Amino acid sequence: MGFLEDAEKIAGAVAAVEGMKKLDPNASMVTEAAAAITGFEGAGAIADHFEKKEDGSEQPS
Q1: pTM to 2 decimal places
Q2: Which residue has the higher pLDDT, 2 or 53?
Q3: 10 pLDDT band (50/70/90 cuts)?
Q4: Is residue 28 part of a domain?
Q5: How far apart are alpha carbons 54 and 48 in whole angstroms?
Q6: Are 53 and 21 in contact (CB under 8 A)?
Q7: Is pLDDT above 90 for 36?
Q8: Radius of gyration for the alpha carbons in the chain, expressed in angstroms and rounded
Q9: Helix and strand totals (H; E) in the chain
């Protein structure tokens, strides 16, 4: 896992937390943590998807 992939995942986590704060300014720390984890994992999944698509290893459905 390279530095750029880590940065993308961290950016996804930050974006998810900021978006969640806009929806619920009084959210608890647990809710913020859940948003951060979701954003981190989601950004990783998106990066993996496009990496496979660029390699041509993903079959179109």
Answers
A1: 0.74
A2: 53
A3: very high
A4: yes
A5: 10
A6: no
A7: yes
A8: 14
A9: 2, 0
Q: In Å, how far are 1, 20, 47, 50 from 23, measured between CA atoms?
A: 32, 5, 26, 29
Tokens of 47: 């990066």
* Confidence at residue 57, expressed as pLDDT on a 0 to 100 scale: 63
How far is it between the farthest Cα atoms of the chain?
A: 44
Domain count within the chain? 1
Residue with tokens 């859940």: 34
In a domain, 44, yes or no: yes
User: Tokens at residue 20, please?
Assistant: 């969640």
Residue found under tokens 């993903």? 58
Is 60 part of a structural domain of the chain? Answer: no
Nearest-angstrom CA–CA distance, 24 and 11: 20
Domain containing 27: what range? 3-54
Where do we find the tokens 């900021």?
18
